[in-house]
Amino acid sequence: MGGKTYKGLMIRETAENQFARAIEELSTDQLPAGDVLVKVLFSSLNYKDMLSAGGNRGVTKKYPHTPGIDAAGIVEESGSPDFKAGDEVIVTSYDLGMNTSGGLGQYIRVPSAWVVRKPASLSFRESMIFGTAGFTAALSILRLVEFGMDPADEILVTGASGGVGSIAVSILSHAGYSVTALNSLQDESAFLKKIGARQVIEPADLVDTSGRPMLKERWTKCVDTLGGDVLSSAVRSIRGYGAITCCGNVISPELKLTVFPFILRGVTLYGIDSQNCPMPRRQKTWDMIASQWKFPWLATLSSEIPLGGVTGVMDEIKAGRHRGRTVVNLWE
Ligand SMILES: NC(=O)c1ccc[n+]([C@@H]2O[C@H](COP(=O)([O-])OP(=O)(O)OC[C@H]3O[C@@H](n4cnc5c(N)ncnc54)[C@H](OP(=O)(O)O)[C@@H]3O)[C@@H](O)[C@H]2O)c1
């Protein structure tokens, strides 16, 4: 005993499949085993956090639970030779916030294998503006860079006004590429142009449900976040020897395709998984985020709330009304 008391969002099952959310006084004694105790300064809000807070057993099996798949803060205690008290770190994904008490509490205790050194040129707050969404955008772009980029590339980004998409548009446009942003169902074209999209197209300009195995070649590369008919149409619209990344299923996990874009156009389709991304690749991606991929309008993509504001924003996420990135200041 003798742990520190701290504040955290706690989700409790009050009756079968009924869940209540409250900010509670907690103790680090109750945190799970792990060799690094981190004082969390900032977190951010993601769709998965809303699911966890709502009692979704696909995300979180056991309650009571503190959600928060993203955390940035300072190592308070370490049993690992890799970290010492005072180190500035980022922890995202793995099991954080799913079945391990997450970043919507002022402390987390995690295995050192999950901990990334925060690059000095990225503030705690900035790292959480990126968060898992921005990290996923950066992982998608890293795949395309490894595939081979050309200054003349024309790149389609889908779900472009969302968390992953807006950061992908921002990184790619800041790097000088010609980006076409797929508009969402509501018109977000003014925002998409502001973050550097050269063109904005409507879903109806892309989506083809005719079953044709290939469509007119339009883009050399694509970062897709939506899946379903959007991904199917994008794969069929990629130019010969182009590449496309797939990270999400906002529209659908189904993917109706023939093999023809792959065997007649040499198109490459990459899967993106941020959750179990190996540590060397994870650290490399954060280092890229903190250097070449840090764009000047980063702060304008986010709003900041205290821990007490989390449940209101989660309701907005659930209703599909949430825009941009929300960072949570745990000590405000
Ligand atoms: N693979 C990984 O490691 C990983 C990591 C993070 C996220 N993800 C996944 O990536 C996806 C995107 O995440 P996110 O955080 O960016 O989500 P988000 O912030 O909710 O963004 C989704 C975007 O898609 C738009 N959209 C929804 N339905 C659409 C439609 N029918 N046509 C065109 N646009 C549409 C939304 O606009 P409106 O709301 O205005 O319609 C919004 O701009 C999710 O599936 C998420 O689970 C995967």
From TrEMBL:
GO molecular function: acryloyl-CoA reductase (NADPH) activity
Gene3D superfamilies in the record: Medium-chain alcohol dehydrogenases, catalytic domain, NAD(P)-binding Rossmann-like Domain
CDD domains linked to this entry: MDR_yhdh_yhfp
InterPro entries associated with the record: Acrylyl-CoA_reductase_AcuI, ADH-like_C, ADH-like_N, ER, GroES-like_sf, NAD(P)-bd_dom_sf, Zn-ADH-like_protein
Residues in Enoyl reductase (ER) domain copies: 21-328
SUPFAM superfamilies: GroES-like (SSF50129), NAD(P)-binding Rossmann-fold domains (SSF51735)
NCBIfam families, alphabetized: oxido_YhdH (TIGR02823)
Protein name, entry field: Acrylyl-CoA reductase AcuI
Source organism per UniProt: uncultured bacterium pBIO2081
Lineage: Bacteria, environmental samples
